[in-house]
């Protein structure tokens, strides 16, 4: 039971979408979790164990629709579809947030609010381990050890630190990035991300396409550690990414780029906290085109295609099938349906979030309980790591 000033209760996942829609959107996640045979190398396979799923999210403001559809709903579905022996670990990665400048007060609030978000969307702290990464020092200890076996060349080939720096400066693309602004934390954060995963001997990591390079690095570092310190066989399984079907949600104002918290125009994104009226206003103002009829053509008609993709994701439909219903309709009709679908999907978790954010004592108790479980698991790993590298 959680130590709380009120009676601890089981948080049930909220009904975010119709059952048929959920089944369609996440069918491939079930297949990925049920296969899993290549998540470990041949030696590690001789020691069967439950699957371990890990993923993290940064506490950098209220999640937008892209975060919601691209990651958070996947986590809820992974929880629903997990086998009884599967271990599910979801972390709010505060140390990663520090790789870019943060206002301390705003970050403190964002940490607490992100915990409320994760509980509001349906993550159950009695089924999954939900915790703040920065409450577990084993992550940074393992990151340092992995840093010491990571070639600089591998980190220079990582593309995501340039993307993050470009986004923080609202640069047009990675080519506009001024590398003089690069700090050591941003350069090496992929190693910390690998440590986040390996600390729990993770076998499966749900990530988007833009994060697959990080999983490859985690696999490389696990393999390097296993081969370098092989006194008792491999220590780390080689984690594999869980493929998700979620489409990338693009900016409502600039459909050539993805929806982002850092975009200057607040009308470009839909936040979890937006009211029905705000959602309607933002969708109505979304960029489209003057072509008669609605078709799905991301290259020629990115604005309309983005709205169709959002509608299909909310309803759990194939986007090309959804587009057929609008072939003889205009953008006004499409936008009205998109706004309604987004509101229907967001209203329950939004209401639960608003309730939970006013219960700091409960959020603290959930965070503490999750961190204790995470430390216990990762400490078992770190005892083996320290012994192998000679730190005992």
Automatic annotation (TrEMBL):
<dbReference type="GO" id="GO:0005524">
    <property type="term" value="F:ATP binding"/>
</dbReference>
<keyword id="KW-0547">Nucleotide-binding</keyword>
<dbReference type="InterPro" id="IPR024109">
    <property type="entry name" value="Trp-tRNA-ligase_bac-type"/>
</dbReference>
<keyword id="KW-0030">Aminoacyl-tRNA synthetase</keyword>
<keyword id="KW-0067">ATP-binding</keyword>
<dbReference type="InterPro" id="IPR002306">
    <property type="entry name" value="Trp-tRNA-ligase"/>
</dbReference>
<keyword id="KW-0648">Protein biosynthesis</keyword>
<dbReference type="InterPro" id="IPR050203">
    <property type="entry name" value="Trp-tRNA_synthetase"/>
</dbReference>
<dbReference type="Pfam" id="PF00579">
    <property type="entry name" value="tRNA-synt_1b"/>
</dbReference>
<comment type="similarity">
    <text>Belongs to the class-I aminoacyl-tRNA synthetase family.</text>
</comment>
<dbReference type="GO" id="GO:0070183">
    <property type="term" value="P:mitochondrial tryptophanyl-tRNA aminoacylation"/>
</dbReference>
<dbReference type="InterPro" id="IPR002305">
    <property type="entry name" value="aa-tRNA-synth_Ic"/>
</dbReference>
<dbReference type="InterPro" id="IPR014729">
    <property type="entry name" value="Rossmann-like_a/b/a_fold"/>
</dbReference>
<dbReference type="GO" id="GO:0005759">
    <property type="term" value="C:mitochondrial matrix"/>
</dbReference>
<protein>
    <recommendedName>
        <fullName>Tryptophan--tRNA ligase, mitochondrial</fullName>
        <ecNumber>6.1.1.2</ecNumber>
    </recommendedName>
</protein>
<dbReference type="InterPro" id="IPR001412">
    <property type="entry name" value="aa-tRNA-synth_I_CS"/>
</dbReference>
<dbReference type="GO" id="GO:0004830">
    <property type="term" value="F:tryptophan-tRNA ligase activity"/>
</dbReference>
<keyword id="KW-0436">Ligase</keyword>
